[in-house]
Amino acid sequence: MNTVKVLKGTSLFKGVDERIINILVNISETVSVPAETVIFAEGMQSDAMFIIVSGKVDVIKDTQDEKESVIGELLPGDVMGVLSLFQDGNRAVTVKAKEPVALVTITKENFENLVKNNIHAAYQVLLSATQHVANLLNSSEGLKEMIQ
Questions:
Q1: Which DSSP category does 83 fall into?
Q2: What is the average per-residue pLDDT within 99-106?
Q3: How far apart are alpha carbons 112 and 34 in whole angstroms?
Q4: Cα–Cα distance between 13 and 128 in angstroms, integer?
Q5: Which end of the chain lies in a sparser environment, N or C, as judged by fewer CB atoms within 10 Å?
Q6: Considering the entire predicted model, what is its pTM?
Q7: Whole-angstrom Cα distance, residue 84 to residue 90?
Q8: CATH class name, domain 3-140
Q9: Other CB atoms within 10 A of residue 108 CB
């Protein structure tokens, strides 16, 4: 898997300098998740962001009658949990693999180390994340990606 290509292909890192992308590759990890696996559950602590490389995931919200409702589907290139890098909190939804899924993940801990060691790179990521969130808030489909 070419992680540089994956990161550059997301709306989150569109336009970010390749030097910064390479730094992000160094703090990221790739993981494979089998079908039907919960990637994260509603109420869990948010401690990482994920980029879908391949496969599909369902976005699930618990309902008041204690049933689960699929509220969306995310596909390759979609980003989950970008705000997890910048704030503490709990996941607002459950995300479950519909089929085998490959993910690139960046943990909050690794991002905080980046902030300590390379403020310029961290600042560029923050600017990109801010623009990404603004774009999502301005689009009708964007809120599906605003998963904590």
A1: G
A2: 96
A3: 29
A4: 6
A5: N
A6: 0.84
A7: 9
A8: mainly beta
A9: 18
Judged by average pLDDT, the poorest of 101-105, 111-115, 135-139 is 135-139
Neighbours of 124 (CB within 10 A): 20
Q: What are 40-70's pLDDT values in tens digits?
A: 999 999 999 999 999 999 999 887 777 778 8
Using CB atoms within 10 A of its CB, is residue 13 exposed (0-12), middle (13-18) or buried (19+)? buried
- C-alpha span between 26 and 112 (Å, rounded): 14
The amino acid sitting at 19 is: R
Residue 137 structure tokens = 């808030």
Going from the C-alpha of 50 to that of each of 64, 66, 120, the distances in angstroms are 27, 27, 22
C-alpha neighbours within 13 Å on the C-beta side of residue 146? 14
- Cβ atoms of residues 74 and 146 within 8 Å: no
Residue-wise pLDDT for 123-139, tens only, equals 888 888 888 778 777 76
| Dihedral (CA of 132, 137, 140, 143) sign | positive
